[in-house]
Every structure is written in structure tokens, then in C-alpha cells.
Amino acid sequence: MKKEQNLLRSSALDLLVQIGEQGGFSHLAIDQMMKKHDLERRDGALLTEIVYGTLQRKLTLEYYLASFIQSKKKLDKWVKWLLYMSIYQMHYLEKVPDHAIIHESVEIAKKRGHKGIANFVNGVLRSVQRQGVPDLNQIEDEKVRLSVATSHPLWLVERWIKQYGYSVTEAMCHANMTNKQMAIRVQPLRTSREELVKILEEDGFQVRRSEVSDQGILIEAGNVLKHQAFEDHLFSIQDESSMLVAEVMELEEGMTVLDACSAPGGKTTHIAEKIEDNGTIYAYDLHAKKAKLVTKKAEQLGLQSIQADQADARELQEKHVTETFDRILIDAPCSGLGVLKSKPDIRYNKKESDIMKLAKIQKEILDEVAPLLKQDGKLVYSTCTVDKDENERVIAAFLEDHPDYQIDPLFFDHIPQMLRNKQGVSEFGLQIFPQDLSSDGFFITRMVKVAK
Ligand SMILES: C[S@@+](CC[C@H](N)C(=O)[O-])C[C@H]1O[C@@H](n2cnc3c(N)ncnc32)[C@H](O)[C@@H]1O
């Protein structure tokens, strides 16, 4: 048992050093680590909790640690992460007593380093145990306090305050520290939402019907990934705010649709379901490997109307003639600042300078596909980020350059009631903040092509 606990924490440290420095938190990385060390299923939950929780609270833990070490002391990366994860467990987890956490950490330090490092780790953690962590209310500057308390880099907090004001930013930072709701989307050509709700409830699941999509089911309790209906591909896993994208496209049977940035195909398959798999969806992605994931997902769900291929969305005029499509979706590559609930590391690895680079690509993609839409056709633009430079301002610049496009006034009728009174509705579309639903932050808008 003791050996297992040590292996578990040592594996957590390996993951933290890797993800903490390079990014890429995923349950897949955790599963792979469990397989590599032959860890038991029940250890997976604790491993996930330690890795996810430590990453999510990195800046808070850095602040806590700073009060226990001399400011000039240079720590090896693994020692730093070992201390973060130990303080995380001592302060936030109640399951394991402090003395056991300290013991395990000192053992790891001995094995990876030497006796001197082990003594240092022991000394720091004993001080944390004796004194407790410092009170964050002592931080006078409210922006710095919000940044440290919710572990968001200061540049991001300041940027959001400038764009959305303090109270929206504060709510957003706190919402990013919560877990999002598991949501699934029924494949309606295989079963109905009511039928699936019935099956799941009979099997002991607690579920709610989504108000955002009539295909959506929110899972309150139970692991749907282990249910036979998942094996049978009766539904897809999809976040609730992401479901709204295809919902606002006003899709009909027989349509020709372009999905310019489609992998891994969550929205492409939703579009295919909404046109009842009758029509054609050209789905592209910059990376050939990723485009194959779209084909695979379509096959799993039994959808035939999707043609997935590799292409740069900035070169699609080479592949299609002008005014081909009834609908176009650009679910653009973005900074991902709306998905911090499930990918806590994104906030540390993104740089402010990345945002303008992405905004340039987003505008280039929009400019390229604009001529491909039929007159009266509709173009939906979405991102899973919260940033005006990638959302409202990209759209404003596009509209300025394309007088044949305008925001579709009918788009606003599709916004679910529960989101209408939130702060995210503007003349350029809908910003869903992470605090609006128990879901990701998203930006969605719809434009219509009118006569010049
Ligand atoms: C937000 S993700 C799309 C998610 C997808 N629509 C879904 O719902 O599953 C953006 C995608 O754009 C792709 N991408 C990035 N740059 C691109 C480009 N220039 N042309 C086409 N695809 C691009 C990325 O590889 C990524 O898969």
C-alpha cells in the first residue's frame, strides 16, 4: 500500500513537471501514466485530483511557497512542483493526513535528489504544517489578489478587467475554479432524447434536459463513459455551450455546408445530425491527422454526409467555387481562454502576444471563405475564448471590409432565454462567459450575406 502511494505521488510529479512546463493537461495523459505504472483504477481519481488541483492552483501555491523560502533560492523544476503538490494536498485535500504527505514527499526527494534536498523539502513542509499558509486578504491590490487567489496570470486579469470590468472578471476567474457539467448530445437518427433519458434514469443516472439544445442531456450523477449507450454511439460527449453553435445555424435537410476548421468533428457531426444526414458537409482541418478524426467520428455515429479532408482554411477558394454553400461554420483556432475549467494549464502557457497572432489568422480565414457563401446564406463564427480581440473586434473588422455581410438580426432569436439577460450579448454576437452556464466560455455570432 505504502509503495503504491509513493508510486502514485511520484507519477503525479512526473505529470506535473511535464504538463506544468509544456502544457497539454488531459485525462488521456493521466490514463497513460496509470497504465505505465500499472496503477489501480481507484488510484486514478486521486492522481487526477492531485495533478489537476495543483495545476489549477499553481499561482496560489507559488505565492504560498514564497513565504517559506528565501526569495533568491533557485529551485530545480521538480523540487518546485513537488512542493506545490505537497502544499496543495496539505491545504486543499482532507483525505490524507499532513504527516503522511510530508513523509511521501521527503521519500520522493531522497530518491530523485539527495539527502540535502530531502532535508530542505522536509523543513519547508514542516513549516507549512506549523504555520499554515498566508492569508490572501493581506494582498492589498485587488487585481493582484484576484490573480493570486484564483491562479490567473496578472496580465490576463488586467486584460479582462479592461475589456469586461471588474465584477465580470471576478466572476469569471472564480467560475474557472469550478468543475463543469458533463454534457452529452443524443444522435437523434439513432434514438431520441426522451428514450435516452429513460434508459439512463432506469440505470440510476441523474440527468437534466439541456435548455440550450434539444439534443443535449446534462449528467448530474453517474459515469456515462461506462454505459453501453456510449459504446453503441447513441450519443457524443459535447459541452453545452459548444452545442449552441450548430443550434444557431438554422440548418435544413439537403443543405451544402462548409465547416472550415472541423477537427475533431464535434460540431461537424452535430451539423450532419441536424440536416438529418441528407446534404453535404465539407469538413476541413489544417492537420491531416486531425481531419481523419472527423471521418472516424462520422463513421462511429453512422453519418455519411460528411466529407473530411486536410486543407488550410485560408486557401479554400482553390477548392470551391464562389457561392457554393448554404451555410458556413468557422469554429476558429483561438487562445482557448474559455475552457480553463477543463484545461487549467492553458492560462500559464498562453502569452498576451499570441492573441493578436490568432486574431490575424481568424480574420484571414473569414476573408477567404466569405465569397464561398451563397447570397442569403449564413456564416457562423465561433471561438472557445473570452477575448474581444479574437471575437467582437475580428467580426467588426470583417464587417468593415465586407459590405455584403451583416450580423443576422434573427440570430438573436436563437439565444436561449437563460443567456439573454447576461452581459455577453452585444451588437456583434453572444459572448458566453464561464459563469453563465456550468460549461465553457464561448463566442458565437451569425452573419448573413446580403445583396451589395
Ligand atoms: C476550435 S478547433 C475546432 C473544433 C471543432 N470544430 C469541433 O467542434 O470539434 C479549431 C481547429 O482549427 C484547426 N486549424 C487551425 N488553423 C487552421 C487553418 N488555417 N485552417 C484549417 N484549420 C485550422 C485546428 O487544427 C483545430 O482542430
UniProtKB/TrEMBL annotation:
Q: Name one Pfam family in it.
A: Methyltr_RsmB-F
A molecular function (GO) held by this record is: RNA binding
Q: Does the keyword Protein biosynthesis apply?
A: no
Localization (cell): Cytoplasm
Q: Which SUPFAM superfamilies does the UniProt entry name for this protein?
A: NusB-like, S-adenosyl-L-methionine-dependent methyltransferases
Q: Which GO terms describe its cellular component?
A: cytoplasm
Name of the featured protein: 16S rRNA (cytosine(967)-C(5))-methyltransferase
PANTHER family of this UniProt entry? NOP2 YEAST -RELATED NOL1/NOP2/FMU SUN DOMAIN-CONTAINING, RIBOSOMAL RNA SMALL SUBUNIT METHYLTRANSFERASE B-RELATED
Residue ranges of domain SAM-dependent MTase RsmB/NOP-type in the record: 172-450
The record's function comment reads: Specifically methylates the cytosine at position 967 (m5C967) of 16S rRNA.
Predominant location category: cytoplasm
Q: Which family does it belong to?
A: Belongs to the class I-like SAM-binding methyltransferase superfamily. RsmB/NOP family.
Name the UniProt key words of this record, in alphabetical order.
Cytoplasm, Methyltransferase, RNA-binding, rRNA processing, S-adenosyl-L-methionine, Transferase
Show the Gene3D superfamilies listed in the entry. Answer: NusB-like (1.10.940.10), Sun protein, domain 3 (3.30.70.1170), Vaccinia Virus protein VP39 (3.40.50.150)
Per the UniProt record, which EC number(s) apply here? 2.1.1.176
User: What NCBIfam families has UniProt attached to this entry?
Assistant: PRK14902.1 (NF011494), rsmB (TIGR00563)
- Chain sites annotated for binding S-adenosyl-L-methionine: C261, S262, A263, P264, G265, G266, K267, D285, D312, D331
Q: Which InterPro entries match?
A: MeTrfase_RsmB-F_NOP2_cat, MeTrfase_RsmB-F_NOP2_dom, NusB-like_sf, NusB_RsmB_TIM44, RCMT, rRNA_ssu_MeTfrase_B, RsmB-like_ferredoxin, RsmB/NOL1/NOP2-like_CS
Keyword Ion transport appears in the UniProt entry: no
Q: Which PROSITE patterns match?
A: NOL1_NOP2_SUN (PS01153), SAM_MT_RSMB_NOP (PS51686)
Native source organism of the sequence = Gracilibacillus oryzae
Active site as annotated: C384 (nucleophile)
Instruction: Offer one example of a GO biological process linked to this entry.
Output: regulation of DNA-templated transcription
Catalytic activity, reaction form: cytidine(967) in 16S rRNA + S-adenosyl-L-methionine = 5-methylcytidine(967) in 16S rRNA + S-adenosyl-L-homocysteine + H(+)
